[in-house]
Automatic annotation (TrEMBL):
<keyword id="KW-0479">Metal-binding</keyword>
<feature type="signal peptide">
    <location>
        <begin position="1"/>
        <end position="18"/>
    </location>
</feature>
<protein>
    <recommendedName>
        <fullName>Agmatinase</fullName>
    </recommendedName>
</protein>
<dbReference type="GO" id="GO:0033389">
    <property type="term" value="P:putrescine biosynthetic process from arginine, via agmatine"/>
</dbReference>
<dbReference type="InterPro" id="IPR006035">
    <property type="entry name" value="Ureohydrolase"/>
</dbReference>
<dbReference type="Pfam" id="PF00491">
    <property type="entry name" value="Arginase"/>
</dbReference>
<dbReference type="GO" id="GO:0008783">
    <property type="term" value="F:agmatinase activity"/>
</dbReference>
<keyword id="KW-0378">Hydrolase</keyword>
<dbReference type="GO" id="GO:0046872">
    <property type="term" value="F:metal ion binding"/>
</dbReference>
<keyword id="KW-0732">Signal</keyword>
<dbReference type="InterPro" id="IPR005925">
    <property type="entry name" value="Agmatinase-rel"/>
</dbReference>
<comment type="similarity">
    <text>Belongs to the arginase family.</text>
</comment>
Amino acid sequence: MQFLKSLVLATTMVLTSANETSDPKLVEIWGDLWPFQGINTFAHLDHFSCLVDKTIPFDVGIIGVPFDTAVSYRPGARFGPRAIRAASQRQTSLRGFNPRAMFNPYDSWAKVVDCGDLPVTPMDNSLAFRQMNAGFEELLLRRQSTSENKVPPRFVLLGGDHSILLPHIRALNKVYGPVNIIHFDAHLDTWSPDKYPSYWHSEQSELNHGSMLWKAHEEGLTTKTNIHAGIRTKLSGLIDLEDDDSQDFIRIEADDIWLKGPEYVIKKILDVVPKDTPSYISVDIDVLDPGFASGTGTQEPGGWLPRELIHILRGIEELTIVGADIVEVAPAYDYAEVTATNGAQVAYEILTSMVKKGAIDPSVVKIIHTFEQ
Ligand SMILES: [Mn+2]
């Protein structure tokens, strides 16, 4: 035993002196951080400002959209991106292998980066939407992926309130045409402005985090094959469901997860949404039960478990995902990073699907852009 200890000591001394004599680089000495150390980017990804720098091609960009002045109840999702980034720190390329997917999205063909935040004003919503419209056009029409086929990069948005979906799919529409919406939420978000009656009115006031899907339908940005999942909102009456039907959404109720089971939910989504047409996944964190997502603006009791949402996201990985968002994480109402950690996991699962499926097939791209430099 004593001999073994001496051997270990001697070996250590040899290794130490070998390191000292081989003149290690500073990055070798000081470059390795533990997951809780360093400046936060999503999953420790490389960061560059994708809006400012046109020179670096990338395939998937994580981008924060810290906008929350279109909420109808509790504000605070402007702090969602930084909370999700902080909660994502145990994701690294070294430990990024997703055992449910048998795939590591951080260590594959795709260049995945943290694009930072889209700077959006909290002072004037009409200006904020102009900024977001212009920002997503810049990102989707004038940035290159690493693909030889000239398909644009794809983005996973960290919200922000749910209205940030609209400027994203406006820009996606210019690339892919209308997209199928796969919408995980407690609420319908297809409410027309007359569902918010008020003496006071302006055009901008029509747009909020419960009406952006109505607006998207009005603008022809969505297909006829869209689905909501996890719905349990209170209604003004059955007329809300008729309005929703008229906007070409199929609904999966929150209770279906335990009455009919998760495989029913997966099959229903795959039956509705055509596999090879451009689809958009939007996850409002309030689809989870408030027990797992207190940090959000409009809680609805009786929601899904994180394991159920993860299983369903894994079950639909074969779809053609051209963009995604995870929205409504409001850390001021969160406890012990629970909501933000679930948000980071959702982003990881969607990212896994986007990369695992491979680069976007150029046949789904309507307009091949020239990527002006
Ligand atoms: Mn929502």
